[in-house]
Amino acid sequence: MRAELAHIKAVLFDLDGTLLDTYQLILDSMRYTIETELGLYCSDEQLMAKVGQPLAIQFTDFTSDPALIDELLKVYRAYNEARHDDVVRAFDGVSEVLAALKDAGLSLGVVTSKRHELAQRGLDIAGLAPYMSFLVGPDDWPEFKPNPGSVLYGCRLAGCDPSECVYVGDSPFDIQAGNSAGCVTIAALWGMFSKAMLCEQTPSYTCSRPTDILSLLA
Questions:
Q1: Of 92, 105, 119, 124, which has the fewest Cβ atoms less than 10 A away?
Q2: CATH architecture of 3-22+89-217
Q3: How many CB atoms lie within 10 A of CB 52?
């Protein structure tokens, strides 16, 4: 462990794009929903611009009608969940990283914008659930990233001061939330957003692949 991180007691992770490789599933689900329900044909960048925030917030880029957003949520979830279990997987190296961090005595948890039940399902399928002490989803905490509330709640569940926690995420919203919470932040460059977009949020560290985390924390 790097000397300046010797005080760290817990590591919190975002889920999609950080632990789980779900980019194509999310993109396909967004495209299907927006094209079939709204008749809009959007670029990948437009469809994925707000990934990392709750789905209802993502859909405000396409409509301001609350009733229509509710319908989009139903269509997206039906499409996504019908395919989820067959395609969800952990990024290469993630299991190795989690095992090493756990062996080093660090508490591990997930703070995600994905609904708790589906997030837990993804962890179970990918074989990552045994490493995690807790999971925080948007149905567990009322505020969402980039607000720091869910990350602060994760720190509380870990029994640590935010300054003793690392938050690892692949979206600008993750880094904003972690920084605002007072955590050490690691930008996951293997995820859904570019290095330039993540570095604009001044993460404490960047890692190009999951195993790079071990050079910092194990």
A1: 105
A2: 3-Layer(aba) Sandwich (3.40)
A3: 31
